[in-house]
Amino acid sequence: MSDKTSKPVSASAIEKHVYKVFPNDMNAHNTVFGGMIMAKCDRLALVVAERHSAHVCVTASVDSIHFRAPAKGNDTLLFSLSLNRSWGSSMEIGAKVEAENSYTGETRHILSAFFTFVALDENDRPVDVPEAIPGTEEQKRRYENAEIRREGRLKTRKQLLRAADKS
Ligand SMILES: CC(C)(COP(=O)(O)OP(=O)(O)OC[C@H]1O[C@@H](n2cnc3c(N)ncnc32)[C@H](O)[C@@H]1OP(=O)(O)O)[C@@H](O)C(=O)NCCC(=O)NCCS
């Protein structure tokens, strides 16, 4: 186990990472393929988790993925991700994706999601990570809400493990 230190949320955050949509990003419905957006979020959330923990991290779960509006050809996607809270070895990272019309500057909120990553030691065992210190009012709100979501995740996990034991 590493020493339990702390790091500010801003130290690992990714702010409006730019991805220009090209024709090969589209689905049959001619909107941007959602799986590509999810994969990019997972990859960027990993960077946030590894910056914060300074360890190799894996995705443990993803919850509340909401596609709020479609992204279209020629949009520019803006990915923002930051650590909401850390506990023992796990961290919740919030993701927000916006689509920008780069000619007009107009933006639309495309996706929100929460990723849980777990930091691993050299033996692939979960290892403690630094505490996350929220700075802004927004970061403090996300920090509080993350605890509520964690309670739900742990409850569901326990119920599923119990159900698997019975079968
Ligand atoms: C994630 C993983 C390392 C957890 O291992 P484990 O032996 O279950 O570990 P533990 O029960 O000790 O839990 C470790 C932490 O993970 C959290 N966790 C485990 N499963 C979780 C889940 N489904 N959702 C959210 N958190 C989870 C626990 O709450 C705990 O957090 P804490 O240390 O902050 O309290 C393991 O399940 C794993 O390797 N999964 C596969 C990961 C993977 O391949 N991802 C895709 C490629 S990156």
UniProtKB/TrEMBL annotation:
It holds the Pfam family 4HBT. GO terms for cellular component: cytosol. Gene3D superfamilies: Hotdog Thioesterase. PROSITE patterns: HOTDOG_ACOT. The keyword RNA-binding does not apply. GO terms for molecular function: long-chain fatty acyl-CoA hydrolase activity. GO terms for biological process: acyl-CoA metabolic process. Keywords: Hydrolase. Residues 11-123 form the HotDog ACOT-type domain. It comes from the Bacteria. The keyword Hydrolase applies. Belongs to the acyl coenzyme A hydrolase family. This is Acyl-CoA thioesterase. The lineage of its organism: Bacteria, Pseudomonadati, Pseudomonadota, Gammaproteobacteria, Pseudomonadales.
